[in-house]
Amino acid sequence: MSLETVPLGRTGTKVSEIAFGTWRFGRRNDADEVEVDADQAHELLDAYAAAGGNFIDTADMYGEGASETYIGEWLSTRDREDFVIASKIFWPTRDDPNGRGLSRKHLRRQIDRILDRLGTDYIDLLYIHRWDDDTPVEEFMRTLDQFVRDGKVNYLGTSTLEPNAWKVVKANELADKRGYEPFRIAQPRYNVVNREVEGNYLDMCDDYDIGVVPWSPLAGGFLTGKYTRGESPPPNSRAATDQRFADSYLTSANFDVLDAVEAVAEEVDATPAQVSLAWLVNHPQVTAPIIGARTVSQLREDLAAATIDLSSEQFHRLSTAKPDHSV
């Protein structure tokens, strides 16, 4: 298969219809084991590129910088211009008061460290990893704008856990007034069970020409179909080891959605994970969902979601499977 390309929001840059997220690269689990080491990371990146993928997502704190280092090592053997690289800044990287957030001091320090680890002169997309209510919007928007003017960054984005449409609007209105680069991409959590961005947030993105690149498209694994209503979670699964996750996801309403996903999966001869991803790939308000994988076979299975054509009836059935979602 070969992934198709789509516009990166309302920019002139083209990206793969499915992005590859690298948050597992260099990450140590509770047993202090590296989930994806450098060799595995390079194999995954090779497989993604072989499928026509060009949109790679990372962050300065993934694997404490190892994710960017692995990507940089891999890029050194390829043509940098073939890929669209996104990274993020916000979370702590130093044990001091200025080692986190969106202050000018932290942003300036981190952008140079990101570029150094990636071995590149610029990144295509820089997200603020979360909102910083302790730093004035004027300060971080001006600093981010300078990164664009200096050629270190091409576009700006904002990543969020909870909907914060008014904050993004405030920042972009200020950018318009001052002549700064605005946020052109949003990275919210969004999938067929986590629907909190529907309504105001997605409508804001439409109105301000902001592309949407969702994270957690499989709801932390719930939408893979590994969980069964009324039964204990599989041993060593996330729901078996994380009570907060179990309480959030193993609900009657979410299993109703999973029932709809599994029904569609049977109709199109696909897995529940592929159907869940296909719902986002086919979503008119979504640019490209971000998938993560630990193995090449898992990556290829997820990428195959791009070949699934959902009918308008199937798409609507999935979209309305959770009547209590926020709007």
UniProtKB/TrEMBL annotation:
Pfam families: Aldo_ket_red (PF00248). One of its GO terms (molecular function) is oxidoreductase activity. SUPFAM superfamilies: NAD(P)-linked oxidoreductase. Keywords: Oxidoreductase. Residues 17-319 form the NADP-dependent oxidoreductase domain. Gene3D superfamilies: NADP-dependent oxidoreductase domain. This is Predicted oxidoreductase.
